[in-house]
User: What shape does this take?
Amino acid sequence: MKSKIQKSSLSELTIRNLGVIESAEIEFGEGLTVLTGETGAGKTMVLTALNLILGAKSDADFVRNGGERLVVSGKFKLNNLMATKVEEVGGFIENGEVILNRSVTNQGKSKISLGGVITTASQVSELAEELVEIHAQASSARLNKSSIQCELLDAFGDYQGILESYGSTFTEYVQLRKRVSDLKAQISVRDVEIAKLQGLVGDFAKVAPKKGELHLVENEINRLGSVEDLNTGVVAGLSAISSEEDSALSALNIAKKYLENLRGKDSELDGLIDNFVELVYEINETSSGLERYLARLEADPVKFDQLQMRKSEILTLIKRYGKGNERDLVLDNLFIEAAEATSKLLDLEGGDSRLAELISESEKVFAALQTLAKSLSKARRIAAQELSKAITAELTELAMPNSRLTVEVTARSEDMSASYSATGLDEIAFLFTSHAEGKLLPLNKAASGGELSRVMLAIEVVLAKNSTVGTYIFDEVDAGVGGKAAVEVGKRLALLAKNSQVIVITHLAQVASWADRHLVVTKSENSSVTQSNVIEVTGSERRKEIARLLSGQDESISAQEHAGELLELVAAARREMIG
Assistant: This one.
């Protein structure tokens, strides 16, 4: 049964001048896609390309030798939630798809765009977290971190409402604690601080500047200070165009009259006449406007002096209390600072009584935080038992029958405020053993690299149905495994692919045989990868590639027979899994 959660997916990846890859376009579909190829053929460059378009750090060394720049782009089909998020940051979506594009020059300069709009790698990286989950040997090591283990448990558990309530209450408590701390510090220098704040509030209220007022005052000062020049210039301009019988405006009106008599004689000329008449009307209107402006223009020494004084008041306020060199920005900040100063004065002038109110309020919020933290811990312990059973069951399916993973939830002291963090009271630990009677130890002490990869795969299979991540990419997930274990890894990847798109870079035939789509990356004679070197293999060609993975000899008859048997076994297992 397919997941009911609508998910995004990667539909196409284009690579130019990245490492050994000169040019390649790779199409991806639903289900499980595997990439195989000889060592050095460029399989890892595919992963590098994906990392780049998803906001990873760029490097000039990625650019192909002799190339000026590398360009990688990925086309993603988006679910409604991701489409909304992309549109919110200005990205263009067409037919439900968005293109992520990244270029890096051989000088190390990088540019990234989202839906045709230039953006930042960090912004793309935030969006990418809900698009693609990449697992390589190094990224599986993240699983050892307690914070990551907590995120995984919370993603599995059905207590998002409690988690959100706790988070908002914790934020409120931290803010109250800061206000209490700030007020205590301010009370010690209360008189000095009150005088300073009163000065700002009083002077700001006295001047009472308005947003944009300074620009209006300066413009009016410029106008009143230039009345004589404005009068002289406008009179001269009007005289030139309309005061004499042979003025420009008179000549234009005569020309207009002659031309209008010619209307209807030539359609081409009619268009020119229309343009000319429109221009004459505009000049007439402008002339009238200048006359109206001139009629209103008069010197006003009293108003001029008042405006000069007003400008001086505002500039003095900026100079006395402002911080910075950009005048407009300083004035904007003063509006904010004056409002905050009023609030601070209420706290300070209330003194000890105000401090007592804040402490009482923080204690009430802390009590609510304690209640929510207990509920969160209880919910986590229940979810931890379920997650432990589910992951252990998956590990059994991954040919690790004696392995056991336990999610341990340990709560810190609920009475100490220092025990509380943004995620609650709990320390989460994933404990693991690969032996039936083995001691449970933290993952980083008990699991090898290959085991850690399989634990990560087991977790993803368990979490996939509830996860919004649409694409999982695995590299080296089959490290350190072979034989039956490798077959089971392939099976679990295929199971994960029932709910999400899965892309696997592998060197194991037992994993590759489970693919819905099998891509092979090869090198040309000059050790480069071009468009023709990334191909989908089916039928006999796929059997040859599976044979090469099994024995290194794709032309070997016995290896091909072995490959055929493996593909038949997997096909039978798939039918059984579906049934």
Q: What stands out?
A: The first strand starts at residue 9 and ends at 18.
